Amino acid sequence: MFCFQCEETASATGCTVKGTCGKPETTAVLQDLLIFAVRGLAWTAETLNDLAPGPEAATGRAAPHARLAEQAPFLREALFATITNVNWEDDRFRALITEALDRRDALAEAVRAAGGSMDAAPEAAVWRAPEATWLDTGAHVGVLATQDEDQRSLRELLLIGVKGIAAYAQHAAVLGRTDPQVDAFIREALASTCIALSREAMIELVLRAGSVAVSAMAVLDAANTDTYGHPTMTRVSTGAGDRPGILVSGHDLKDLADLLEQTAGTGIDVYTHGEMLPAHAYPSLARHRHLVGNYGGAWWQQTTEFESFHGAVLMTTNCLVPPRRANTYLSRLFTTGSVGYPGAVHIPDAPDGAAKDFSAVIERARQCPPPQALEGPDLSIGFAHNQVLSLADQVVEAVSSGAVRRFVVMAGCDGRHKARQYYTDLAAALPDDAIILTAGCAKYRYNSLDLGTIGGVPRLLDAGQCNDSYSLVKIALALKEALGVEDINDLPIAYDIAWYEQKAVAVLLALLSLGVKGIRLGPTLPAFLSPAVAETLVSTFDLKPMGTVSGDCAAIMADA
Ligand code: FS2
Ligand code: SF4
């Protein structure tokens, strides 16, 4: 196996035996084979479209071939399944591979029926092998199949960013929102990895992935806020009650909403964990009195926190990590959506977007004792774009008067490495005239610090999940307009991003596509950036590695 898609990759180069995340070699190889299969599927779909595009739309552009739209949900699902800490069930990867091959071959038939030929098709578009040999095939079609280091780096940067885009698009699709342009780009990007492209063309695709990530996040933001209302500033309890509980983690708000409906009046309390914390700020979720608080911290602490929670645990998306040998919670762990884990009960999708049936989760929770209380202060959340922009006058006044000298975007992911203590120390070290804007589970490194307020505005503004990084973009663009600044880089905003998995890569590409320069990225730069590609990002965007707390703090405040 060879996998280097996350920040915790072995020796900062690549996992080759078993993932640092716990991913076994078999799972890694099946993921590689699935990606190979969907690349071939996308190439075949693009070929069909070139041969027989749909009718010309009113825009003057041809609509995509009618068969293309039906591939989009599958491509999103397949990509999402391969994101770090999502699906650990090999059988599901085998089923996805089978479906990819069947879809691909049906499209190949359509190519032939339209007078085209598959004779010169790339290997990804034509291979088929007995399932018993898939592990052999998968071992030869992964990352290292691309020989040239820089071509491999750009290809993987694109694929990894597209995985993040697919996850955002899938979250929005669950709420009935899709964007054909986003789905078309996912297809185009996958297909592009089957052919040799110039370095310039590959860089262009990578930057376009950033623009598409902005669009995907905008669609998701609209889906979430239209469905559940705009987040408002909210204090969230981190205590524990005396009734049995269900702990909901991951990012899928619809799963939480449906579970809240089904647990109303049952005597069961519902708690959020990790990236589900922002749910408390959405009016139509917060109205449920039995949504009582947030339990625990970031994803990597779950092996301790799921244990002491005592109740049922529902993982709606990443990050699910393998329970340790001493853990006892597998019998009360439930997965749903893209997530899967051997031994955990999976709650299936309901047809046509209807509510899933969570009765098994509820029944399990009834048999459990209440959670063991954890130490921690209440948390302040709900500072997504609508809430922050409602404070725009105060914010602009604070900037104009000099009360706020710098905004520091510290969005992204948390992770296990001790080096991430940097983010706690940096948040504490920033002077009193700096405001931190955060989104994602990175916040758990500093959201229990008492950072105070400036003119009534909290010094830590939490916009929500990593999915809500779009809010930070909207806030930056609104500040640009309010302060009459020409260039986004002239704003008093510094970016110190913590990354772990592939959605954070999509967010990074989104910021680069908006022309943001001088981003600090840590705790390490991605292993999938070759020296030459890293140098391109450094010279074009002034991308910087994380430094020391004191050095970075001084540089951030001096805007260097
Ligand atoms: Fe955190 Fe994990 Fe949000 Fe990432 S819960 S690192 O996959 O999605 O951020
Ligand atoms: Fe290694 Fe990360 Fe890949 Fe897991 S997801 S195998 S830790 S690089």
Description:
The protein folds into three domains: 1-145, Substrate Binding Domain Of Dnak, Chain:A, Domain 2, CATH 1.20.1270.20; 236-366, Rossmann fold, CATH 3.40.50; 387-558, Rossmann fold (3-Layer(aba) Sandwich), CATH 3.40.50. The chain has helices at residues 25-51, 72-81, 90-113, 123-126, 134-138, 149-174, 180-192, 199-228, 253-263, 283-286, 302-309, 359-366, 385-390, 392-401, 421-429, 469-482, 502-513, 531-541, 549-558, and strands at residues 234-236, 245-249, 269-272, 291-294, 312-315, 333-336, 345-347, 379-381, 406-409, 434-438, 453-454, 457-458, 460-462, 493-498, 520-522, 544-545. It has 560 residues and is of the alpha/beta class. It contains 19 helices and 16 strands.
End-to-end distance: 40 Å
Main sheet properties: 6 strands, parallel
How many domains comprise the coordinates? 3
Q: Radius of gyration from the CA trace?
A: 23 Å
In DSSP terms (H or I, runs of 4 or more residues), the helix count works out at 19
Low-confidence runs = none
Query: In order across it, which strands form the biggest sheet?
Result: 4-3-2-5-6-7
Q: Average pLDDT, to the nearest integer?
A: 96
The small-molecule ligands in this entry are: FE-S-O hybrid cluster, iron/sulfur cluster
Which overall shape is indicated by the principal axes computed on the Cα atoms? globular
The helicity comes to: 40-55%
Text of the CATH class of the largest domain: Alpha Beta
Number of strands: 16
Strand content: 5-15%
Helix and strand content put the structural class at alpha/beta
According to CATH, the fold-level topology of the largest domain is Rossmann fold
**CATH architecture assignment of the largest domain:** 3-Layer(aba) Sandwich
InterPro entries: HCP/CODH, Hydroxylam_reduct, Prismane-like_a/b-sand, Prismane-like_sf, Prismane_a-bundle
Function: Catalyzes the reduction of hydroxylamine to form NH(3) and H(2)O.
Organism: Roseospira marina
Protein name: Hydroxylamine reductase
